[in-house]
Design goal:
Layout: H1 7-19, H2 24-38, H3 41-52, H4 60-69
Helix pairs in contact: 1-2, 2-4
Length: 70
């Protein structure tokens, strides 16, 4: 995964990578919880748009977390 690109993608991917040792369902729930609690609504909106647009290099856990947040 690239260290360049939109900040929201990089941050979400970093969190997903740190949670990847957990069972997938728990990792998705933890990631969604973190984004929901700590990310500004504008940041969440940008992340949703990246996932909707099929942005390259979005971690699969991020995609699932966005589904859960919606």
């Amino acid at each position: 995964m690239s260290a360049t690109g939109p900040a929201e993608r990089r941050m979400a991917n970093d969190i997903a990578t740190n949670l990847a040792h957990l069972p997938p369902e728990r990792a998705v729930a933890e990631l969604a919880g973190h984004i929901g609690r700590f990310w500004d609504p504008r940041m969440r909106s940008k992340l949703y748009a990246l996932v909707d647009d099929g942005a390259p290099e979005v971690h699969p856990l991020v995609t699932e977390a966005v589904k859960l947040l919606r």
